[in-house]
């Protein structure tokens, strides 16, 4: 007999995440179910949710109220569709002799029976050994994904760029995303089991679709909560005491772009981040898909931003600090705006240039751990 109560919003969040796994899986199926396992340990009652398919495995432990022990399986999509409303209410799940092959769900003054699903494979090997381990906090993981993922490739013909590259280089861990026109580089010293003389392939690519899942998972955690990232040649695991998520890595070789990790330009411009971000948002909203070029005309203390679209021309001049030879350079207005919007808005931004045709390095003043490299447009 099982009679448990849980916050409806909590269960909806977890089942929404699981439902998303199946929708994004290449060999997805409407028949995938979630295993509910109610267990009692040390005078506490827990609900363990388990899900697995061809690409991901997920386990989550939730503290609940109620009584009884046992397990049952419910179609994830059906359950999620039913409970994903009136999220402030509690929900009760009941399984006994009267419910037979169904689960009685009671919430907000009404009740419904949902049929149990057939038994499926829910084996999640949470204690499985992996050769590489990295430890960081949920806050650090969230910041890394947000900073890196926005420029990751979406086109399937560049599968080696369709994810975040994780590599160990000169004593630090590097997290990199790119679509070949721009590169995000986030570096950090993290606790790991790697030794300085270890020779790693450094070819760990976490698929972009799984980065979205990991970001949702860490949003359930407190920022200071510790996360363990585990790797082998084919898989990545995100593990805490109450969460286990495993997915396949992208089976491609990431291009060697280490030359950009510490690249410095020949000249630099310092500018107010918040002001330039707000102005570039206006330029971006006015631009069209056929004309994406924005021109920067940089002088000693002024920079002019010029956009000429098919319908309108927009110009804006801002104060800056620049001490090199006057420079004219062109960028994709959408890429430049996105880069600046992902900088810390309370710190000045420094843009380093290598002439009018070399890559530009965009970073916050005094910030060494994160940089954005943007290729200029070649104008005939």
- The amount of helix comes to 10-25%
Number of domains: 3
Compute the number of helices: 6
CATH architecture type of the largest domain: Roll
By oligomeric state, this entry counts as: single chain
What would CATH call the class of the largest domain? Alpha Beta
**Structural class label:** alpha+beta
Short description:
The protein has 380 residues and is α+β, with helices and mostly antiparallel strands. It contains six helices and 26 strands.
Description:
- The structure is a single chain.
- With 380 residues, the chain is an alpha+beta fold.
- The chain has 3 domains: 2-115, DNA Polymerase III, subunit A, domain 2 (DNA Polymerase III, Chain A, domain 2, Roll); 132-260, DNA Polymerase III, Chain A, domain 2 (Roll), CATH 3.10.150.10; 267-374, Roll (DNA Polymerase III, Chain A, domain 2), CATH 3.10.150.10.
- Helix content is 19%, strand content 42%.
- The protein contains 6 helices and 26 strands.
- The protein has helices spanning 8-24, 76-83, 138-149, 208-219, 273-286, 333-341, and strands at 2-7, 33-41, 44-52, 56-68, 70-75, 90-95, 102-107, 110-115, 132-137, 163-169, 172-178, 182-188, 191-192, 204-207, 226-231, 235-239, 243-248, 267-271, 293-298, 302-308, 313-319, 321-322, 327-332, 349-353, 360-364, 370-374.
- The strands form 3 sheets. Strands 1, 2, 3, 4, 5, 6, 7, 8, 9, 13, 15, 16 and 17 form a 13-stranded antiparallel sheet that branches. Strands 14-10-11-12-26-25-24-18-22 form a 9-stranded antiparallel sheet.
- The longest helix is centred in the N-terminal third of the chain and has 17 residues, at 8-24.
- The mean pLDDT is 89.
């Amino acid at each position: 007999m099982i009679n448990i109560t849980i916050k409806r919003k909590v269960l909806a969040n977890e089942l929404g995440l699981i439902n998303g796994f199946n929708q994004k899986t290449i060999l997805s199926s409407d028949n995938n179910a979630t295993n509910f396992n109610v267990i009692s340990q040390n005078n506490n009652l827990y609900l363990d949710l388990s899900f697995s398919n061809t690409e991901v495995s997920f386990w989550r432990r939730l503290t609940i109220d109620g009584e009884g022990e046992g397990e049952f399986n419910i179609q994830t999509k059906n359950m999620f569709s039913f409970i994903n409303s009136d999220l402030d209410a509690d929900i009760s799940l009941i399984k006994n002799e009267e419910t037979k092959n169904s689960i009685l769900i009671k919430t907000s003054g009404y009740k419904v029976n949902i049929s149990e699903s057939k038994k499926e494979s829910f084996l999640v090997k949470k204690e499985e050994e992996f050769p590489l381990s990295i430890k960081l906090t949920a806050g650090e993981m969230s910041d890394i994904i947000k900073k890196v993922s926005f420029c990751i490739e979406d086109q399937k013909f560049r599968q080696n760029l369709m994810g975040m590259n994780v590599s160990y280089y000169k004593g630090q861990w590097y997290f990199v995303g790119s679509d070949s026109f721009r590169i995000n580089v986030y570096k950090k010293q993290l606790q790991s089991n790697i030794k300085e003389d270890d020779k790693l392939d450094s070819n760990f690519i976490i698929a972009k679709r799984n980065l979205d899942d990991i970001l949702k998972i860490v949003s359930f955690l407190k920022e200071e909560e510790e996360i363990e990232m585990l790797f082998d040649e084919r898989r990545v695991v995100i593990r805490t005491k109450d969460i286990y998520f495993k997915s396949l890595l992208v089976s491609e070789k990431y291009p060697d772009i280490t030359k950009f990790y510490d690249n410095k330009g020949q000249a630099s411009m310092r500018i107010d981040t918040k002001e330039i971000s707000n102005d570039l948002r206006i330029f971006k909203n006015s631009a069209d898909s056929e004309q994406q070029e924005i021109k920067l005309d940089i002088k000693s203390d002024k920079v002019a931003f010029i956009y000429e679209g098919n319908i309108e021309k927009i110009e804006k001049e801002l104060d800056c600090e620049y001490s090199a030879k006057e420079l004219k350079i062109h960028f994709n207005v959408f890429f430049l705006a996105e880069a600046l919007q992902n900088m810390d808005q309370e710190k000045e931004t420094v843009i380093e240039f290598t002439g009018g045709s070399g890559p530009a390095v965009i970073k916050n003043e005094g910030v060494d751990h994160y940089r954005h490299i943007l290729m200029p447009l070649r104008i005939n």
